[in-house]
From TrEMBL:
Family of this protein: Belongs to the fatty acyl-CoA reductase family.
The keyword Lipid biosynthesis appears for this protein: yes
Function: Catalyzes the reduction of fatty acyl-CoA to fatty alcohols.
UniProt cross-references to PANTHER family, sorted A to Z: FATTY ACYL-COA REDUCTASE, MALE STERILITY PROTEIN 2-RELATED
EC number: 1.2.1.84
Name the record gives this protein: Fatty acyl-CoA reductase
Residues annotated as domain Thioester reductase (TE): 21-320
InterPro entries: FAR, FAR_C, FAR_NAD-bd, NAD(P)-bd_dom_sf
Catalytic class of the enzyme: oxidoreductase
Domain of life: Eukaryota
GO biological process: lipid metabolic process
Residue ranges of every copy of the Fatty acyl-CoA reductase C-terminal domain listed in the record: 395-492
Species this protein is from: Urochloa decumbens
Catalytic function, reaction form: a long-chain fatty acyl-CoA + 2 NADPH + 2 H(+) = a long-chain primary fatty alcohol + 2 NADP(+) + CoA
Length: 492
């Protein structure tokens, strides 16, 4: 039975701790770093491992990409002129790389870190659905291996937390439970997943491509990743390699390393603190918002009745901190799915309706000062229907233009090549992102609900650590927080 949890226990746990965080320049990483510093100024050190050529470059990158963002406004206001001094005392930027042996650190630095490290949080990942296979394997799989090797050197380690994704379990339309992925498991029946074999396959493929140009190598590696993912039943190389990373973690942790795997679904903008609506990068659901805002797309692939599983970034960070405390020094592996589809499902229709409401009440204005009228989008509830529409509305005219271009001795070369490239790009997006548009699985979060049940929500301080999706009013959140946030921070 878990002990009761409240803000005081979480804050108290962080006091005096040395914490290593990878992926701090990413969206979730920034949220976690800021939250730790804000709630517990007496944390010993927060080490941020970033890719950089040397220590000054690492420090500069952390300053520009992490500390210098609007997310740290509350801390900046709290400390005033002492802000830089506080950050300098608590944050240590490390020039390294999780894709390299020893995390790309020299032996003395690694040894010193290992002596004092209490908690390791791995958020670093390449989240590109169509990434080069070699890059995805290096970051999402080998990065886990290198962190595990370092963790085993940490005599006082109390927790290794690994952030994965809820979609590692595939495109099942059933309830997807919180359980570890078994080594060798594949989504395709009768097929075994051998991580070492995948690494050898990539190495051999790179040897064969050594004489090709850089563009050809990049394309071939991307296609190989998609091919291998689908061979084993996953929809893209991102979720495929994240699944392999989980499997490798389960193999390497041994019997005495406390491990928590956190699997968020689609992470959306900050809901409550420190900056409601703050977001970095474009999530899959934000394509709809951005396209509607710019009036750049007239149709969209998706079924409005489908549940879109999303969870605000600050709630994910809160869940991570609570789980960190709950399982500290426990010699086991826990899996949590930070999701919403079971407890508080929301459909694409709610997002679309909230967007329409927002743009009606806050109309866009063109360069000429005139109000830009809202256009209704056309949605296609299946990929075949969308392909048929694209063939009739775009592919056929493109073929006619191709014939005319030949007859007129290349007069329309530039126009044809431009439209052809755009058409192929759209169809590629459909191929890669289509499975997510029609994802009908439901993520079970029984483990996280059990942890939530131990949380005492008796004070405003306790509310700072809320990670209950049932508390979200999706209409209000999309309308007042997320959509304005996307427009402010993404569509600058």
């Amino acid at each position: 039975m878990m002990e009761s949890m409240d803000a005081a226990r979480i804050i108290g746990y962080l006091k005096g701790k040395s914490i290593l965080i990878t992926g701090s320049t990413g969206f979730l990483g920034k949220i976690l770093v800021e939250k730790i510093l804000r709630v517990q100024p007496h944390v010993h050190k927060v080490y941020l491992l970033v890719r950089a050529i040397d220590a000054p470059s690492a420090k500069q990158r952390v300053q520009q990409e992490v500390i210098g963002t609007e997310l740290f406004g509350l801390l900046r206001d709290k400390y005033g002129e002492g802000f830089d001094s506080f950050i300098g005392e608590k944050i240590v930027a490390l020039a390294g790389d999780i894709t390299g042996e020893d995390l790309g650190l020299d032996a003395p630095t690694l040894h010193d870190l290992a002596k004092h490290m209490d908690v390791i949080v791995n958020i670093a990942a390449t989240t590109n659905f169509y990434e080069r296979y070699d890059v995805s394997l290096d970051v999402n799989v080998m990065g886990v291996k290198h962190l595990c090797q370092f963790a085993k050197q940490c005599a006082n380690l109390k927790m290794l937390m690994h952030v994965s994704t809820a979609y590692v379990s595939g495109d099942s339309a059933e309830v997807i439970v919180e359980k570890p992925l078994k080594p060798g498991w594949s989504l395709r029946e009768g097929v075994r997943l051998d991580i070492d074999a995948e690494l050898r396959l990539v190495a051999d493929a790179k040897k064969d491509l050594i004489d090709g140009d850089a563009a050809e190598q990049k394309k071939a590696m991307k296609q190989l990743g998609l091919q291998r993912a689908r061979h084993h039943g996953w929809s893209n190389s991102y979720v495929f390699t994240k699944a392999m990373g989980e499997m490798l973690l389960g193999q390497l942790r041994g019997d005495d390393m406390p491990v928590v795997i956190m699997r968020p679904s689609v992470i959306t903008s900050v809901r409550a603190d420190p900056v409601p609506g703050w977001i970095q990068g474009t999530r899959t659901i934000d394509t709809l918002i951005i396209g509607y805002a710019k009036q750049s797309i007239s149709c969209f692939l998706g079924d409005l009745s489908v549940v879109v599983d999303c969870i605000p970034g600050d709630m994910v960070a809160n869940a991570m901190m609570a789980a960190m405390v709950a399982h500290s020094e426990e010699k086991l592996q826990a899996v949590y799915q930070a999701t919403s589809s079971l407890r508080n499902p929301v459909t694409y229709a709610v997002l679309y309706r909230s967007g329409g409401r927002h743009f009606e009440e806050h109309p866009r204005v063109g360069d000429d000062g005139q109000v830009i009228p809202n256009r209704h989008m056309r949605f296609f509830s299946s990929i075949p229907r969308f392909r048929l529409y694209m063939a009739l509305a775009f592919k056929l005219p493109l073929e006619i233009l191709h014939v005319a271009n030949i007859l007129l001795c290349g007069l329309f070369d530039k126009l044809y090549n431009d439209y052809s490239r755009k058409y192929k790009f759209v169809m590629h997006l459909v191929d890669v992102y289509g499975p997510f548009a029609f994802f009908r699985g439901c993520f079970d979060d029984t483990n996280l609900e059990r942890l939530r049940s131990t949380m005492a929500m008796k004070s405003p301080q306790d509310e700072m650590f809320n990670f209950d999706p049932k508390s979200i009013d999706w209409d209000d959140y999309f309308y007042r927080t997320h959509i304005p946030g996307v427009l402010k921070y993404v569509c600058k």
